[in-house]
Amino acid sequence: MLFNSLEFLLFFPVITLIYFVLPHRVQWIWLLAMSYFFYMNWHAEYALLMAACTIVTFVCARLIARVSEPKKRKAALWAGVVFNIGMLGYFKYTGFFLDIVQRGCDLLGLPVTTPKVSILLPVGISFYVFQALSYMIDVYKGRVKAEQNLFKYALFVSFFPQLVAGPIERSNRLLRQVTAEHRFDWERTRQGLLIMLLGFFEKVVVADRACMYVDAVFGSWQAASGAQIALATFVFAVQDLCDFAGYSYIAIGSAKILGIELMTNFRQPYFAHSVQNFWARWHISLSTWFRDYIYFPLGAGRGGKFKQARNMMIVYTVSGLWHGAALKYVAWGMLNGALQVIEGLLPQPKNKPKFPKLDLLLHILWTDFLILITMLIFRASSMRAAAGMLLRIPTAWNAPAIATGFSGMQALCTGICFLVLFAIELIHEKRKTLTGITDKLPGCVRFVLYLLAVLAVIVFGVWGPGYSAQAFIYFQF
Known about the structure:
Elements: H1 6-21, H2 24-40, H3 47-66, H4 70-108, H5 125-141, H6 150-158, H7 171-178, H8 186-219, H9 226-257, H10 275-279, H11 284-298, H12 305-323, H13 327-345, H14 356-379, H15 383-395, H16 408-429, H17 434-438, H18 443-462
Helix pairs in contact: 1-2, 2-6, 3-4, 3-5, 3-6, 4-5, 6-7, 8-9, 8-16, 8-18, 9-14, 9-15, 11-12, 12-13, 13-14, 14-15
């Protein structure tokens, strides 16, 4: 069930109404049932995998909490880690591993033929596995107490707004919230609906329309001009942000209506002044997960620059693999890690710049340029395609542009939406909010603005030939 579907627009109001009518003792049970119903709308049988992940991490955490012998506690922890990483690895990386083996055999001239497998990746498996693992590790570290109720813990793992694409929440924040009593609150509902509206604008109006142009150019890059490839890379960078941040806004807004606060997952990443700062703003729940559960245990920056660089490269290589079973994702992750290592080695200026705002702008533009290169690799169909596109940008600038089916009116509509998005991001970067601005207006004016915004999403979200609702990009991860 997609957020940008009629089914969800019917599903969410109904389950919310019933949720607030029910007494507190069964509210969380209703949420658990509806979360599994939400997930089973894709492939019902894969709910068994989520249930297995839940039961194994729950049992392992209970064992960790009950035994005092360090070896037994560590054995229970590793049992949970191996099971869940093994399950994730089977569904996500079996084909990739067999392909690497086949290439190696071909290179060595060995007469080996690996089997061809086609395993459907369960939606959201990377997200709920990481969320469950963080709980179990936190119990092992003594950061949280082991949950005694399996079904309450199951709701923490399966809570439907953030189940399939995050934010990846921690148990010390979400577990107590999903089982607490929540009463209907109009002001909280208004704020949640406005956050959801922003998410629908970014996903339905911006990302889905930008997708049409990006797919056309990246699908026929061999014939596209350098200018077209450069523009498509920029458009994809905006599409990727709006697609994923749009999902996060809808998740955060819908959870807020239910009385549950989810963490901020994006914070104006294209205003970052360095690659490291970009990753402190982009997919924050995943970046902090890797920081807390891989980078810090490896030693972080302890032991000198070399070890810090090694640990950074390990983290971002793993991050690349997390995003997909392909060499391009590994290269993408390693490039992001390498850029941050280089930034850490560069000498810091001793004096303050004479023109700090201009200096900041130049740093932002340079960072965005570097990120665009990584985005091209991320979106390309393969590393070979990425290399070809990067080479074509400066060498085929005067080549005739391919037909994309993107009309002048569609381009104008997209351009206006990009400007609106830039204005919204700039407002948020200035530590202001849209509601903080609109709340100063009279109630009737606010109502008209809200109504116009809803109509704009409906009208511009489906206008134009070739438009179709797209699944969220990060569903495949």
